[in-house]
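Ticket #4471: structure export looks truncated?
Reporter: QA, pipeline team
Priority: medium

Steps to reproduce: submit the single chain below to the structure queue and open the exported record.
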Amino acid sequence: MRALLQRVGSARVEVAGEVVGAIERGLLVLLGVARDDAVADAERLARRTLELRIFPDADKPMNRSVTDVGGALLVVSQFTLSADTSRGRRPGFSTAAPPEQAQALYEHFVDCCRARGGTVATGRFGADMQVHLVNDGPVTFLLE
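Actual output as written to the record:
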């Protein structure tokens, strides 16, 4: 399971011109689920996402977590994060989880974040989405 985290001033996701999820300050989380991922992976990644200290305070540029600053998460499914790009010019997706497994783990990740007190907005799983963001920094991390 991979999460590409982008620190944002704001972000929103649209499906067919309709805003389905939006946040102000926080993290845009693009979440990819691989075939061999399990519930424990989603739980660990949710904890790490909420606890990663990548927001500034008065002392250091990266000293507070999204939870510490009262930020929110916008979680968007992103199966292309599981692509195999090691050969050729066309990515392969044999390592990506099938849709049923991926959706269950995506939803479990979101539930874990909410259970830990996070404010979470989402995209729409499997939809063609347009993601708009104001990247803060820019600050981007890949968690696996």
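Status: closed, not a bug. The export was complete when the record was re-opened. Leaving a note from the reviewer for reference: The longest strand covers residues 129-143.
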